[in-house]
Design brief:
This protein has 23 helices and 28 strands. 48% of the residues are buried. The protein is α/β, with parallel strands linked by helices. It starts with a helix and ends with a helix. Helix 3 (44-61) packs across helix 7 (160-169) and helix 13 (302-323) packs across helix 14 (330-351). Among the domains are: 4-280, ANL, N-terminal domain (Rossmann fold, 3-Layer(aba) Sandwich), CATH 3.40.50; 477-655, GMP Synthetase, Chain A, domain 3. It has a 5-stranded parallel β-sheet, with helices on both faces. It has a 5-stranded mixed β-sheet with strand order 12-13-14-15-16. The protein has a 5-stranded mixed β-sheet with strand order 24-25-26-28-27, sandwiched between helices.
């Protein structure tokens, strides 16, 4: 079956879109990258030349149709180009998380049978070389940055620029072969293979076709009226489906410009300089930015603190209404305009959001307070709900229908149904082809009619059609009393506080909920510095009595809020512990996309959980950790267990 778009000039593949863009937007900026403090820019015509040169060089190097080519590194135009170049060879790009340890990379490289690996720098070269003996299919590495690699054995190493140079030199010889391979690409050809984060087991290779990528890019771009004049900042992991769709799929469909920061350390400066009109960030990024704002306000003068508090209170009341075009009184509008001059405008400029026309957050549920904060500033922040298996888009919030408690209505072309147990199912043009070499999991997730199980529990509101996600279906349970247990709901409320970086709530099948808390070292460290409190380590600061008191006040404030929700009031946190270390992806406690691996945490910290429920006031524990260089070690600590006041009595009185 050929879709209508396929009939419009043969745009059935990403290379086909590149060809169109080079003709339609030839002299318009397609990619930018900041290097040595200066922004470099490439037009769509130049981008096409760069991509074709690499594709020709890869063909000369031996990349065959159907090969898997791994791509590892930070966001750089060259690595985005390499994904399209690989497709032009008739091969399949497989982006990997650049911060993955060698062992994690080995699993993915071996599972997909990657023959070629394109990497950013020496660090990634070293990881691949470390595990190459475990990779029977591995043949060659292409590296972008030559620093530190001069004395390496280059029998299997090739510099990116040299591969392009060879491609240009042999263009006349190889161009027909490349054209033949590109001509074979159609809607059913594999566009990319992306590995899931693996919250419950080994990552799975999600095969996405050109149909999946182009159809979802087209419909989502039309949904938000994205256009060639838009700008985005590409800073999220290239192995994540969201970045692939925003920085490759939608960029290729609309022709907008993809901007790559110089480094993670300069990301916020680069964000301000670019001033993107289309912006995406997971909740953690918005939480971090809000934390930084609150830290700065702690150091502000009394007058500035008063102004910030006064105008932000007003913004929270009327800002979202103004943004959605609702009726607001003249005096309120005038006061908001004054706040825009004094507070909101400068703050948006500091955050880099002055020009944001469409902003999205997804990946995890965002705390309502955090969401409302940004919208009150006049930033059109919305929520979407998606998965790798859906090529991102399942639901999204249309302008004028934005709420903090839903993830929007179904996206164009998407069907949704709710199973009897509350699990959300969907069907759409973006539904993945299969899990690579895993027919059992494919069959478990996608049925014969194309319906996909999300693993999330939720319901569709009557009248509005908005989808509300409660939690992961496997995490939603019942307290011993029979009341609903939804940990993520409470965790998000806890993480609204700048001092709390991460929270994990327990309680399924039990009489009470308990929690692990990670402090935010930046926020709490800033407080310690202002109050002349010395500390030698994260562990020492986390256990400081004043820090514990502050965290307890946050927990008790959240309990008051949770008590107001009749359905989830049983999820109040009765006892908690501030952990002696940050939960870390290198220790297997988080995924590379920073999602909590709840089951692993329950097993690893079983002694602490037991102490939370047996009435202990403290617990001694020893935890294995992984250092940055891969060495293993352990941390010992005696942790204080606090009891938090709950609002059960208030809830009962309200019920009466």
């Amino acid at each position: 079956m050929t879709n209508a778009i396929g009939a419009q000039g043969g745009l059935e593949s990403v290379p086909g879109l590149l060809e169109r863009n080079a003709k339609a937007f030839g002299n318009k900026a397609a990619y930018r990258e900041k290097e040595f403090g200066i922004w470099q820019s490439w037009t769509w015509s130049e981008t096409k030349d760069e991509i074709e040169a690499l594709a020709l060089g890869l063909i000369d190097l031996g990349v065959a149709e159907g090969d898997f080519v791994a791509i590892i590194g930070r966001n750089r135009p060259y690595l985005y180009w390499s994904m399209v170049s690989v497709q032009m060879c008739g091969a399949i790009p497989v982006p990997l998380y650049q911060d993955a340890v060698a062992e994690e990379m080995a699993y993915v490289l071996n599972h997909c049978g990657a023959k070629f690996v394109i990497v950013g720098d020496q660090e990634q070269v070293d990881k691949v070389i470390e595990v190459q003996d475990e990779l029977p299919n591995f043949e060659q590495i292409i590296y972008l940055d030559p620093r530190g690699l001069r004395k390496y054995d280059h029998s299997k190493l090739h510099q990116y620029s040299e591969v392009q140079k060879t491609g240009r030199a042999k263009r006349a010889e190889l161009v027909d072969e490349m054209a033949t391979r590109v001509a074979k690409l159609d809607y059913d050809s594999t566009c990319v293979m992306l590995y899931t984060s693996g919250t419950t087991g080994k990552p799975k290779g999600v095969v996405l076709s050109n149909r999946n990528v182009i159809e979802t890019s087209k419909s989502s771009s039309e949904f938000d009226n994205l256009r060639a004049e838009d700008e985005i900042l590409a800073y999220l992991p290239m192995a994540w489906v969201g970045d692939f769709i925003f920085s490759v799929g939608q960029a290729m469909w609309t022709g907008f410009c993809t901007n790559c920061p110089e480094s993670p350390d300069t990301m916020h400066v680069d964000l301000r300089e670019i001033g993107p009109t289309y912006y995406f960030a997971p909740p953690r990024v918005f939480e971090t930015q809000l934390t930084n704002v609150m830290i700065r306000m702690e150091d502000a003068s009394p007058l500035k603190k008063w102004m910030f508090s006064y105008f932000m209170d007003h913004a929270k009341r009327v800002g979202p209404k103004i943004l959605d075009g609702e009726a607001v009184g003249l005096w309120d509008r005038m006061k908001y305009a004054l706040g825009e001059l004094a507070i909101y405008g400068p703050l948006k400029n500091t955050l880099g959001f002055s020009r944001v026309r469409v902003g999205y957050t997804a990946g995890e549920a965002i705390g309502p307070e955090i969401f409302d904060f940004y919208r009150s500033l006049g930033i059109n922040l919305k929520q979407l709900y998606g998965q790798t298996e859906a090529t991102v888009f399942i639901t999204a919030q249309p302008d004028g229908q934005v709420r903090s408690d839903t993830v929007g209505v179904k996206c164009p072309g998407v069907e949704i149904k709710i199973a009897e147990n509350g699990e959300v199912f969907y069907r759409s043009p973006g539904v993945f082809v299969e899990y690579y070499k895993n027919p059992e999991s494919t069959a478990d997730t996608k049925d014969a009619e194309g319906w996909v199980a999300t693993g999330d529990a939720g319901f569709i509101e009557e009248g509005t059609g908005h989808l509300r996600i409660i939690d992961r279906a496997k995490d939603v349970g019942q307290m011993a009393s029979g009341s609903l247990f939804a940990p993520k709901y409470v965790e998000n409320k806890l993480k609204f506080f700048p001092n709390i970086l991460e929270a994990v709530v327990f309680g399924n099948g039990r009489d009470e909920c308990t929690a692990f808390i990670n402090i935010d070292l930046t926020a709490v460290g800033n407080w310690a510095e202002r109050n002349n409190i010395a500390y030698a380590s994260y562990q020492e600061l986390a256990g400081h009595p004043q820090v514990m008191d502050t965290i307890q006040s946050h927990v008790e404030e959240v309990n008051q809020s949770v008590a107001e929700d009749e359905m989830l009031s049983g999820c109040q946190v009765h006892r908690f512990v501030v952990l002696h270390k940050e939960l870390d992806a290198d220790d297997g406690e988080l995924t590379r996309t920073r999602k909590v691996r709840r089951r692993i945490i329950e097993e690893k910290y079983a002694d602490i959980i037991a102490a939370l429920y047996d009435g202990s006031t403290q617990v001694s524990t020893e935890t294995e950790v992984t250092y940055e260089d891969g060495r293993k070690g352990s941390i010992s600590a005696t942790l204080e267990i606090r009891t938090a006041q709950t609002a059960a009595a208030v809830t009962r009185m309200a019920a009466e």
